[in-house]
Every structure is written in C-alpha cells, then in structure tokens.
Amino acid sequence: MSQATIILLVASCLNALILSSMYILLGLGFTFLFNIMGILNFAHGVIYMIGAYICFILASTVGINPWLAMLVSIIAMGLFGILLERFVFRPFLGNINLIIVVCIGIITVLKNAVSVSQTYTVQMTPPFVQGVFKVGIVSLSWERLLIFLIGVGLLILVLLFINKTKQGLQMRAVAQDKEGAILQGINVNYISALACVIACALAAVAGSLMGSYLTVNPYMGDDIMIKVLEILVLGGIGSINGVFFAGLIVGVMDAFLPIVVSGTQTQAIMMFAIVIILLFKPQGLFGKEVRT
Amino acid sequence: MKRTGSTLLVTSIIMTAILVLSSLAGCAKTTSTKTSTTTTTTTAQPLKTYTIGLLAELTGFLGAYNTATVNEAQIAVDIVNEQGGIVVGGQNYLLKLVVENGQSTLDGTTAAANKLIFSDNVKIIIGPDAYFNSAVSGLCEQNKILHIAGYCTMQPDELDASTTWTFLGQAAAINYFTGALAYLKANYPNVKTVALTMPDDGSIPFFGAAVQKMVQDAGYTVAGNIIGYNNSATDFSPYSAKIIATGADACIACSGVVTPNGNILKNIRDAGSNMLFVICNSVIPKNYIQVAGAKEATNVVDCSAGYIGNPNPSSMLQEMIRRYQLSTQGADLVTLEYANPVYELVQLFKQTNSFDPQTLKTAFAGLTSIDTFYGTGTISGIKTFGINQAVSYPLPITTIDNGVATFRQYEPAIVP
User: Which of B84, B74, B53, B30 is nearest to B355 (CA)?
Assistant: First the structure.
C-alpha cells in the first residue's frame, strides 16, 4: 500500500470521526425534543444557523473573543429555547400538523430575516484555535480536532446528564410515560423547557463551531437538517443510542464515499443505503415498534 | 379555561407576527428595487421608461450572492438614468429593471422567466445565474426575447448554435478558466499533471469535459477523474484528501464559490501538501485568504473578475465601486455579471437607436467587441459554444502567498 493511500485512509478515518461527532451533537438535540415533547422540530437547522450568526456577529463585528461569543450564543439560544417551548410548542402539543406549520413559519421568518439583513460578503467566525497537529505522516488542524473533542465531550456530558442527574432521570420518565411521570409529581412543563434549552444550546454550539470552520450563511441550516433527519430515521426516531450509531454510519459514509464517487453520487448512495436498511428495519436501527 | 384562552391569544399574536414578518421578508427585495427606481424617477426629466427583465435567484443557495449582483445591476441602471437615460427615436427613456426571483431552482427559474415574458411583457431578459440558463434560453428562443446571461456552465440548452437569441454578456466561467490556464502555462513550467475539481452540480459532463480537453490540449496530464464536490457538503476534507492522493503537481478549482474552494485549499494545506492551487472563479483573493486562513492561503494563483485593488480600473468601474461601497457600507463588488449586460445593452440601444429585440440581436451578433466595466470585451465562443455570442474581457491574475495577494498581470482570456 502506497504512502498516499495510507494517508488517504487515515485522513478519511479522522474525517469520519469529526463529521460523526458533529452530526451526533445535532441529532441529540432533535431527539431530546422528540422524546420529551413528541415534537419533530424541523426548525432545528434554523436554530443552528441563528446560533452561528450570533457567534459570528459578536466575534467578527463586535470583536469579542470567539469563545465568549460562543458562550453568549449558547445562552441566547437557550433562552430562545424557553420561549420556543412556552409560546410555540406547548400550545400545539399533540397536533403534528400545526407543529409542522409553526416550524415552517419559524424557518421562513428567521431565514428571510437574516438573508435580507446581510450584505453579500464572506462571513466567517474567527478561528477558535489555529495551527496544525502533526503525528507521523498525518497532520490535522487543531480546529478540526477541537470540533471533534467538543462533540465527544458534549456527548458524554449529555449522556451523564440523562443517566445520572435528577432532571435527566425525570426526562427519561417523561419520555417513557408522560402521564405516569405527572402522577409521580414531575413538572412536565419544566422538563420540556429544559429539553428545549438543551436542544437549542447544542445547536448553538454546533453552529458556532461550523461557522468558524466553514462559513456562515442564511441557508447553512438546510443541509445540516437533511443530515439530522437521515440520522434520526436511520437510528430510529427518539433513540439516543440510534443517534449515536446512525451518526457514526452517516459520518463514515460522508467521509469515505467522496473518495470513490462524486459529490452528488455520495448523497444518492447514502439515501439508497438508508432506504435499504429501513426496508429490513422500518423502525430504524434502534427504534421501538409503534405501540397502538 | 382562562389560561387556555390567554395561551391561544399569545399564540395567535405570534402566528400573526410570523405571517406578517414572512410577507415583509418575501417582499423586501422587490421593495428595495422599486424604491431605488422611484428615487431616480423623481430626479430625472424624461417621463417614459423602458423596462428590462432581470432574472435572479434571490432566495435559496444563490440568494445572498444574487441580491448583491442585482444591486450592481441597479447601480448600472441608476448611472445611465442620471446621465439622462437613453434616447431612442428622438424620445428620452429611463431604464427600469423588473426583477423576478428564480428561487435557485430550475422550476422556479422557469416560472420566473414565464412571468417576465408573459406577465411583465419584457422583450429583454438579463440573467439568470449558475446553470439556470437552461430553463430560460429555450423560452427566449421561442418567444424572440433577447436574452443576455452573465454566467454559463455549458449545460445543454444554455448557449449553443440553437440558442440564437441568447448572448453571454460575461463569459464566465470558461473565461476565468481560459485566463488561469494561459497564466499557468506561461509561468509554471514544472507543472506537468493537474487535478481538476469543480461542483458536482450537473456541469461536469459539459463544462468539465470542455476544461479537461483544454487542459489536455495545453499539454498537461489530468490526474484521475474530475473531482466533483457536493456544494452543500458539511466538510470538504474528503475532497482535499482525494486531491492530494492524485499526486498531481497542481490543483485547478475550475469553478465554484468561496466556501468549498476555500475549505478545500485550507484542508490541503492542513494535511501538509503545498501543491499549487489555481482558482478560476468569481471570488476575490481577499475572500480566499479569509476562508482558508492567511497561513494556508499560499502558493495560489487566482484568476477572477476585475475588482478593487487591481491597477487602472476604468472610470465606469471606479464609479460602480464607489456607489456599491456607499450602498453596502464598504463591501467589495461581486462580479458585475448582471451589471455588464446592462452596460452592453445601453451600447446596443445607442448604436441601433431601437428597443426592437430583433434589431438589437442582429446588432449584437454582428459585433466583434463591446465595452465592459472591465475594459474592451471580445465577442467569441464559436469553438467553445458553437456560436460567437460570448463576451470575454481581460482578467486580472493575482498570486497569493502567506496570505498576501499580489496583482501580476491582466490576461486576455479570450474564450475560443
């Protein structure tokens, strides 16, 4: 095996891990909301975009430290999550049609508002870290390593939160049996708001990081939303484990397929693979059978 | 009950706000264009107006970009109107742009073209962008509408021998590629093999095939197949890894925008390769430095449209830059791909003393050169498109090393 091939394989493995961590991060936020509130939040991509813009504007235009800008973005989007839950999602709980319409409304308003308010210039958040990390024949930018580390770190934190904290256990209880949770004295509205805050904050982290790695634009959430939906359907809607494994699968495919086929063929093959998997596992890899 | 009622009230208010804001957002671009035109009308004497259709992708992936290029076209119209407009048949006319949104889709662009032709009743259409001409050129041919595009990816029905009513007012993207290849050949004798990359947006079998042949005709070996990337990829590292693995001496980014190309460059450098990176598209070097990073933006040749900072801009270009920066709080010009067709049209109006599309078409087809914002443009394209209806103009070549862009020369870049 030539050195070029080895470098290509190693680079692709690293790419797969980095992409997977970002996908899992976003998929988790989406799954949180679905589990707790039964809401498919199609506006998640737009929340990711707004999170990226807040960080970009604070770091580039206002000139504050990018880390601080990301923190502000997380807090701002977390607060937005509270408003979202209280005034948008809660009134329509249980009505999927209305929720979809509301999500489309949020997407249209936020995306167009950003689009018309921005001048056409390249918009990019200043780098959080700079430089290249080199091991043997492989080199990787610190920026990409950071995305991976933050992704993995947050994933561990979220899993710890769900499994080890009182609120996390309450979330699991609400997800498993809402009425039962209410009878046990769990404040479902509080837990729902918390889920919204976590989902929006995770989207803000992902958006801030990707705004520095790629660029920021009003449509950046559209493509990532398609990825998130692919992951959710493949993993089984509502399954945390499903998000983890489907995120890995999609990340690996995204990293390796472009090596052998072109860009759009990558998308087509990926969708085909997902359809094939769903033919044998209609509920997704980790999804539960729908109870009637 | 009371709580449910108040919740419903708040929800209703939010939904109403969403609807109102949504409507406002959707109307925003049309409003700004109309405002600009109205301002001009009040300051000029002539009463009659002549309407030109402008087809742009104001929403979708080209939304922000085309918003800027429409702004440039409007400035070009404002300049003409402030100078007294156009005199045709002894009557003064102010020019007016009517803009329709193609929504960055072929269906949307077809609908917008139909609206321009059958509802707005225009006889001249400028635009659209990217690969969307295929939705417009045929319609213009059938209805004898003069169509002046600003960009072409050489897909079927965009511009060929059968689209006689279509002109390419700015021969991008092949124009940029021609200039870059000529400079590469003259200045980098050590480059023998090249990797080619471009968006996988359907143009590879057409634009890709054409540039591949040009590269081979120039004596280079193309390393592997054309590397087509997904414009909306989350990460462009896999493409960079693939480019490095070809072992080519240089990579030519044949077309595309700054996000993918800048990231591919960044990832190539971060992976430890210093291969020559040649960019031929409508993005200024400054933006590549911004996206790739100063350290990574090195050993780069850029051939793109003429912009701020390049020596000896024409007085028209200087005026365009001044006004554009005023209207955008200092932003850089984009490509003038809608403004150049406006400028060319004005020359045709003056030359023919007519708005008749047949007369204008015949006059345009009979020219061998025409003025552009970037200097004298050459009308060519028979070998590339099968018809001599593409305007090429001299392009600035810039090299970038360690984040510093240096102007080298103007390359004639005449499309064969």
Answer: B53
Mean pLDDT of B55-63: 83
Instruction: Please answer whether residues B353 and B400 qualify as being in contact, where contact means their C-beta atoms are separated by less than 8 angstroms.
Output: no
Strands B193-199 and B276-280: unpaired
Which of B10-19, B206-215, B237-246, B391-400 bottoms out in mean pLDDT, i.e. has the lowest?
B10-19
Q: Which of A7, A109, A219 sits opposite B61 (nearest CB)?
A: A219
Interface predicted TM-score of the whole assembly (ipTM), two decimals: 0.84
Q: Which residue of B has its CA nearest to A113?
A: B25
pLDDT tens for each residue of B143-189? 999 999 988 988 888 999 999 999 999 888 899 999 999 999 999 99
- DSSP labels for B47-112? -EEEEEEEEE--SSTTHHHHHHHHHHHHHHHHHHHHTT-EEETTEEEEEEEEEEE-TTSHHHHHHH
Q: Rounded distance, CA B133 to CA A238, Å?
A: 43
Structural domains in chain B, sorted by start: 36-173+334-366 (3.40.50.2300), 175-281+283-309+397-411 (3.40.50.2300)
Residue A192: pLDDT above 70? yes
Q: Which two tokens stand for residue B395?
A: 């392009």
- A212's CB contacts (< 8 A; 6+ apart) are A55, A66, A124, A125, A126, A127, A128, A143
Q: Between vectors from CA B128 to CA B97 and to CA B347, what angle results, nearest 5°?
A: 55
Q: Which of B224, B197, B117, B203 is nearest to B156 (CA)?
A: B203
| Contact at CB, A109 and B270, closer than 8 angstroms | no
Residue of B nearest to A110 (CA): B22
Q: Identify whether the C-beta of residue A124 lies closer than 8 Å to the C-beta of residue B291.
A: yes
